Hints:
Layout: E1 2-6, H1 20-30, E2 34-38, H2 50-62, H3 66-84, E3 93-96, E4 111-115, H4 119-125, H5 127-130, H6 134-150, E5 153-156, H7 159-169, E6 176-178, H8 191-199, E7 206-212, H9 220-232, E8 237-243, E9 256-260, H10 267-279, E10 282-285, H11 294-301, E11 305-309, H12 314-317, E12 325-327, H13 333-345, H14 347-364, H15 367-385
Parallel strand pairs: 1-2, 1-3, 3-4, 4-5, 5-6, 7-8, 7-10, 8-9, 10-11, 11-12
Amino acid sequence: MKILFVSSYDVADLQNGNGIDYFKLQALQAAGCDVTPVSPIVLSPASRNIVSRGILKFERLFISNLDVVQKKRFLKKIGAAIAAHPAHAAVDAIVCPNHFDISFYRGPLPVFFWSDATHANMVALYAHHQIKSDEMKQFEHQVQQRAIDRASGTMWASKYAMNTALSIYGADPSRQLVTRFGLNLPTSLQLDEFEEIIGKRDERTIRLMFIGFDYKRKGLDIALRAVVELNNMSVPALLDTIGGFHYVPEEARNYVTVHGPLNKLEPRQLAAFETIQRSSHFLIFPTRADVYCMPAIEAMAAGCVPVVSDVGGIPEIVTDGETGIVLPLSAGPLDYAKSIKGAFDDRQRYLTMCRAGYASSRANHQWDKIGETAASFIKDRLATAI
Length: 386
């Protein structure tokens, strides 16, 4: 099966992306698909001459919804570029890691997209989508509808996302599949390594880790206060944060180490990330808004118990009391501190959660298995369309 894997951005640029889309591509290749990656399709725009600048100025004066007009032009340009690509005529299907880039493709090939959220999910959860103009929100809703109607099949990271496609966009259930996502790491631990890691962890001081570039949305303020609450309860606890550089309140400074961004493509930084993750007892992730949760998947794979909020598709990844701890969105720092202390004090319960999380990551979040599932779905949909 020959696939054109298309996107308007370079999925292999892991420094400017989270890597998931690149792993999707690799998973299809590992499943035996002949994949031609085309990224980016649309190169950077040409420098504006005096005429184009004049046209833009005119449009700004007389077109009230210029942002919508420009986005529609861009998506049409992507669609035309896909159809004009030299490999287009030699493949069986198009696969896209998002819905936008295939929304205005008008060629004859079957198309599939592989996503973690619908537009409705994004508007419901993320503030930067909520502040867009009504015209832009309506346009992006229409774009999502176009993509779902056009797609021969759609693959979702969670039932949370797929169910929105069914209920809001009227998606055909026979064209939908939940695949989950895999580890966003180059390698995974074998069982003997895993057992050695969890057996060596400090039994006196609780080690917490927090991951997030958008640390305000990810609930860093709750994590910082939770580590203070633990120490106020005479429970020694330390917190390592990875992602953005941020302010640490004075009362937390003795307990917090800020690492900033760590590039997993750079060996030393990857080693630093793995050291923190493998020494941490818990991932504390009180996110306010998320459709999925890659940090929880990565944590479970290393036997680091995720303590997360009940948001979006996260409860499909972490099972409360089995593979981690899921707290309501209303939970505050003291709730997180008490839940962590309770799990840490009961060592057998803690180790059971470590092992259950590791088993879940092996069973549900391995890209090789996910790629086989996705490839099989695409083949079945292509056969149905014949």
